[in-house]
Write a structure and sequence with these properties.
The protein is 25% helix and 27% strand. It is an alpha+beta fold. It folds into two domains: 99 residues; 89 residues, no CATH class. It is globular. The two termini are 32 Å apart.
């Protein structure tokens, strides 16, 4: 069972010097815990919550995640017993920048609520009135149970820094977890703080040192400002 709070995702820009130019792989393991995608000339390496142990230093875990790319030949670098330690101590050889860090919390339905008088159906109106943007599916016109902070740019692909949505409905729709498990989880509402390089300047490798609680404590002042906004 997924913990009720944790780090949902970390995104790293890989140093192109060691990348195998012939690699076409995007999903690194069958559980979709590790994946690659292109962002212009760069390659983003995404590590999701399922890969992490929240009680172990995240820099160490990220070093082992990068080592998976070495073992698969996606990163051209000697594969020895010392390689994970070398990556950990010399991360700058492999990682140019941290570009994504997402924190999540799960809640029972009676633990969190949305003031619908402080929501709007368009991003323009949400910005103008200083409230949440309730997502409306552009194709079906369906008004969803997903709400975003209004700090997303209107004509760009950058992200809102806060989102609240019905995780139970999403898990049923995605159909990747047993429906019995999904329906028996009392924490069905999810909030996420989505820190990306286009909405904060706090992202840095040094801020990923330590276990989950240490990383959360390092970011909690920023998260409190986002929540207050």
């Amino acid at each position: 069972m997924r913990p009720n709070e944790g780090i949902d995702k970390i995104g790293l820009v890989l140093n192109p010097i060691f990348l195998n130019k012939e690699n076409k792989k995007r999903h690194i393991d069958p559980f979709n815990r590790l994946s690659l995608h292109k962002a212009g000339p760069y390659t983003i390496f995404t590590v999701t919550q399922e890969y992490f142990n929240p009680f172990i230093d995240y820099q160490v875990q990220l070093a082992f995640a990068i080592y998976e790319l070495v073992k698969l030949g996606i990163i051209d670098f000697p594969d020895t017993i010392f390689t994970p330690y070398f990556i950990y101590k010399n991360h700058g050889w492999f990682v140019l920048n941290v570009v994504a860090l997402e924190f999540y919390s799960s809640w029972a339905r009676d633990e969190i609520g949305i003031d619908h008088d402080m929501t709007e159906k368009t991003l323009d109106a949400a910005k103008e009135n200083g409230c949440l943007y309730q997502y409306v599916n552009k194709e079906t016109k369906e008004v969803t149970d997903t709400f975003y902070s209004n700090d997303k740019a209107i004509n760009r692909y950058d992200r809102s820094s806060f989102i609240v949505y019905d995780k139970q409905k999403k898990d049923i729709r995605d159909n990747q977890i047993s429906h019995d498990v999904v329906m028996n989880n009392p924490k069905s509402i999810r909030t996420e703080f989505r820190l990306y390089s286009d909405n904060t300047s706090w992202l840095h490798w040094d801020n990923l040192r330590g276990d989950y609680q240490a990383i959360f404590n390092r970011h909690k002042d920023l998260l409190a400002v986002i929540y207050s906004n």
